[in-house]
């Protein structure tokens, strides 16, 4: 059995991690970008969790 990582799943994980890291150093623009990245990441990962 081989393990393959779907590109969309990987992009989603990276987007969530980037969003969390940006929230650590807060500035107004950073919050906006972080929220976008987290929402985008969750929406991309959601189909794999159900």
Structural class: mainly alpha
Counted beta strands: 0
**Over all CA atoms, what is the radius of gyration?**
13 Å
The secondary-structure element order is HH
Sketch the major β-sheet: none
Number of discrete helical segments: 2
How are the SSEs ordered, and which strands pair?
Blueprint (H helix, E strand, L loop, with lengths): L6 H18 L3 H22 L1
Helix pairs in contact: 1-2
Care to describe what's here?
- The chain is mainly alpha-helical and 50 residues long.
- It is built from two helices and no strands.
- Helix 1 packs antiparallel against helix 2.
- The two termini are 22 Å apart.
Features:
80% helix; elongated; mainly alpha; 50 residues; single chain
Please provide a brief summary of the model.
By secondary structure, the protein is mainly α.
């Amino acid at each position: 059995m081989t393990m393959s990582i779907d590109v969309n799943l990987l992009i989603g994980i990276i987007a969530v991690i980037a969003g969390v890291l940006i929230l650590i150093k807060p500035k107004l623009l950073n919050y906006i970008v972080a929220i976008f990245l987290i929402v985008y990441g969750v929406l991309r990962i959601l189909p794999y969790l159900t």
